[in-house]
Write a structure and sequence with these properties.
Number of helices: 5
Number of strands: 0
Order of helices and strands: HHHHH
Strand content: under 5%
Structural class: mainly alpha
Distance between the termini: 11 Å
Length: 73
């Protein structure tokens, strides 16, 4: 489970958070706390919640099944 969680966090970080380079903007656009964005970016032990994944997917207009396919899970 930890490996799957890490893949999800790293995918979100590398594909969307780092390229945007603005934690506050990413948080606002994806309806999540800025603290959550910082944890995605910096915390190697962060356990991302399903609600966070769902909010990001909703903001990106991606179905959960498509998201997990993109991640490789």
């Amino acid at each position: 489970m930890k490996i799957a969680n890490r893949k999800v966090v790293e995918f979100i970080r590398d594909k969307w958070v780092i390229p945007m380079n603005n934690n506050s903007q990413f948080a606002t656009e994806n309806n999540i706390d800025e603290k959550t964005v910082r944890r995605i970016r910096e915390d190697v032990n962060y356990q991302i919640s399903l609600i966070t994944i769902m909010r990001i997917c909703e903001a990106k207009n991606i179905k959960l099944s498509k998201f997990f396919e993109m991640v490789g899970l």
